[in-house]
Amino acid sequence: xxxxxxxxxxxxxxxxxxxxxxxxxxxxxxxxxxxxxxxxxxxxxxxxxxxxxxxxxxxxxxxxxxxxxxxxxxxxxxxxxxxxxxxxxxxxxxxxxxxxxxxxxxxxxxxxxxxxxxxxxxxxxxxxxxxxxxxxxxxxxxxxxxxxxxxxxxxxxxxxxxxxxxxxxxxxxxxxxxxxxxxxxxxxxxxxxxxxxxxxxxxxxxxxxxxxxxxxxxxxxxxxxxxxxxxxxxxxxxxxxxxxxxxxxxxxxxxxxxxxxxxxxxxxxxxxxxxxxxxxxxxxxxxxxxxxxxxxxxxxxxxxxxxxxxxxxxxxxxxxxxxxxxxxxxxxxxxxxxxxxxxxxxxxxxxxxxxxxxxxxxxxxxxxxxxxxxxxxxxx
Length: 380
Hints:
With 380 residues, the chain is an alpha/beta fold. It has 13 helices and 8 strands.
C-alpha cells in the first residue's frame, strides 16, 4: 500500500512539473517575459541610453537633432522641432510672404512628428505642407501629451502668430490620468537601445511620492529594475531565483505591486480620481490652449486621432469622448479602418494610407475654416 501511494505521488508530481513547464513554454511563446512585470521591458546588464529629447526651462520637450532615433527623412531645426526652417517670428513672416500661403501650426505627439509611414514625407503634416494653400509648422514630439501641447501653445503661438493652430488629440494615450507637472530640464521619456522608452514620471504607488520626476536615465532604469523586475539591486537571492520563472515572477510582482498600491491609498485616502476628474484634467489643458488662441485672435482646430482598436467606431467617438472636450468644438474622421495603421496596439500609428486619409480629413477642415461659407461642417 505504501509503495502504491508513493508511486501515485511521484506520478502527480511529474504531472505537475510537466504541466508547469508546458505552461512556462506557452506563456513565453505568447510574449510573456520572466522576471519582469512589464513584458516590453528587458533587464540588461549594460543598458544603452539613446538620448532623443531635451526639456527646456519651461518643461517643453524638444527633439535632439543628433539622436539616433530620428524618423526617416527628418530634419530638426534650431528650436528642436521637425522643420526645414527655424521657427522664429522673422522666418515665419518671410515664409508667409514668399509662399503666399497660410501658416498652420500643428501641435501633437508622434503622429504629428511623422510616425510611421515609409518616410515623414508621407506623414499628414508634410502632405498638407505641400498643398497650394498651407505651410506647416510642425510641433509634434513623440511621447508627449496635452501638458506639452499647452506649454507649446503658450510659448510659441503669441510669438509666431500663425494663421491657424491645430491640436491633435490621440485617444490611445492623451487622456491624462493625473495632473502632470512640467519638469524643466528633464525629458518626459528616456529611450534605451533595444528596449522600451522609460517614462520619466514614477507611479505614485511604487515611488510612494506624488508625481515624482525621475531626473536621469540611470535613475529611471534603476527605478524600473527595482520596482518592475526581480533583477534589481534591492532583490535577495530567493527573489532573483523566482525571476527565472514567468509564472512565479508574475505572481510575486503582482502581489508586491498590489501591496504598494494599497499602502499608497491608505496614506492618501482623499487622492482617488474618478472618471469625471480625469476628463477634467485633459479638458483644462485644451481649454487653456483655446484661451491662448482667442487672446491672439487666431483660429483653433482640435482634431481627434482614434486608436487602432477604436478607429472604426467613427462618429460614435463624438459621444464616447464628449466629456473630455465639453464645450470645445472638435472633429474626428469616421472613415478610418484597421488597414490604415501599422498594428493594432495603442502604440501603433498610421501607415502611408492612414496618413493620406488623415491629411484629406484635416485639409477639408482647414479649407472650411478659411472659407466664408456659413454652413456648419459635418465630421468627415
